[in-house]
């Protein structure tokens, strides 16, 4: 390669990196997270402003937050695996540890090229989940970064995409439904092979000729109830009128599964919080 070609390639690479890093408004991945598995498949670069996870036939990869959180708001921008992502799952979630753990899940189920990702959400309390809602997205999550947020308050848990609420899980302890409120959680993310179930129930397998599969992360922010961000929008107790309209719009047009309407799954009656 000639000198001019080399310089041109270098400039293009730098421009691509600058675009992916964007305006750094969040934390620094070096300070906020530990790369926990997958070896060199998990990388932090751009001065700590950008993180990537990769999956190949040998292994996936993952990271976790250094801090634990008990209530607050978590925001992260993700750009998901592009192209044929069938068989892959990009998980992004809050979780405590142990057999009676609490957990708040975003999981992005890959698909063949041209088919939409499925956004899978779930809430675990004291080790018990089975509260799935699934959505298609109203954009291609592989083309650009989008913000995925969890607002966790004693009153309810809200899942948001680009600040649009897609799901609210209310505290129904007064009706005997456990609610995650006593166990601090870390933020985790992983990119892993789930081709035994992720795409069309496992009918479509990962195409390893397309590996490595890579997802990117930037602009992490946390606002903890016990920290410097104790005041803010996440503390308001209810969605405003516009947010309620957006929530109804998403659930009417993009929800593809709701455990609260699955009578076949719950022949003895729907879970208490659904009634």
UniProtKB/TrEMBL annotation:
Keyword Amino-acid biosynthesis applies: no
Keywords from the UniProt entry: Apoplast, Cell wall, Cell wall biogenesis/degradation, Disulfide bond, Glycoprotein, Glycosidase, Hydrolase, Secreted, Signal, Transferase
Pfam families, per database record: Glyco_hydro_16 (PF00722), XET_C (PF06955)
SUPFAM superfamilies, alphabetized: Concanavalin A-like lectins/glucanases
Active site: 103 (nucleophile), 107 (proton donor)
Keyword Transit peptide: no
E.C. number(s) listed in UniProt: 2.4.1.207
Gene Ontology terms describing biological process: cell wall biogenesis; cell wall organization; xyloglucan metabolic process
Alphabetical list of CDD domains matching this protein: GH16_XET
Domain GH16: 23-217
Modifications the protein undergoes after translation, according to the UniProt entry: Contains at least one intrachain disulfide bond essential for its enzymatic activity.
Signal peptide: 1-26
Location within or outside the cell: Secreted, Cell wall; Secreted, Extracellular space, Apoplast
InterPro entries per the UniProt record, alphabetical: Beta-glucanase-like, Beta-glucanase/XTH, Beta_glucanase, ConA-like_dom_sf, GH16_AS, XET_C, XTH
A GO cellular-component term linked to this record: apoplast
Residues listed as glycosylation sites in the UniProt record: 111
Top EC class for this record: transferase
GO molecular function, one term: xyloglucan:xyloglucosyl transferase activity
Function: Catalyzes xyloglucan endohydrolysis (XEH) and/or endotransglycosylation (XET). Cleaves and religates xyloglucan polymers, an essential constituent of the primary cell wall, and thereby participates in cell wall construction of growing tissues.
Record family assignment: Belongs to the glycosyl hydrolase 16 family.
Name of the protein in its database record: Xyloglucan endotransglucosylase/hydrolase
Organism encoding this protein: Linum tenue
